[in-house]
Amino acid sequence: MRFALLVQADPTSSPAALSALRFAEAAVASEHAVSCVFFQGDGVQLGHAFRRPPKDEAQLPARWAAAAAQGAFPLYLCAASALRRGVLDAGEAMRQGLEAASLAPPFELAGLATFLSEAQSADRLLTFGVSL
Amino acid sequence: MKSLLIVSQSPPYGRSSAAEALDTAMAAAALEMPVTLLFDGDGVFQLLPNQDGTALGVRNHSQLLEALPAFEVERCFVAGPALARRGLAENALRLPGPVLDAAALRALYRDAGLVLTY
User: Fold this and answer.
1) Chain B interface test: which of A1, A3, A112 (most B C-beta within 10 Å)
2) Nearest Cβ partner of A112 from B15, B27, B114?
């Protein structure tokens, strides 16, 4: 089965950010597949290159990068959410007159249209992040 | 093409989820994907009249809701059990579409191609 993942969880304060990663890792290690991952809202903070979590905590970006490389799926940050939160790639930083990009590859900026179009090839879409 | 069910279950203010649900619904409609928007859980608070976001320095959420038909998001539903649990009467709200009972909600989820929760 192919899964598209929508991650809204804040990587600093929500355990759902780790749940999403562990789901993706398990999918890649099984007969299942991940079609794409879209980080939206506070979820995009995961792609900020300047994050420095303590060394003894889970290193989410590196593990996402490894899972994405193994499973050959893209890691999209919602471009609108990312701009609001200061996560800019080189092109966007230049457009805004900023000296440095703050986006950590292999994360990349993408619009909702890209995500929704790619999610069409998935059998299921899972959302991680809204806590009730 | 798979149909999308966007479940908006967050209150209108305090976090960005409610606005993101609308953004996603409008983007899907612009791509001509079949999209349904369901207000469930605390998302039904988005339907209260006389909202004023200015005190919070954010957009008035009900204005965004009223723009939905202009963006061709026309299939909207409201979860009846969520209204009952919060003591909200239908006639006290600006309803964007029909109120569904538990059985109709189950059918909505069953028939959805992909479900996105906000």
Assistant:
1) A112
2) B27
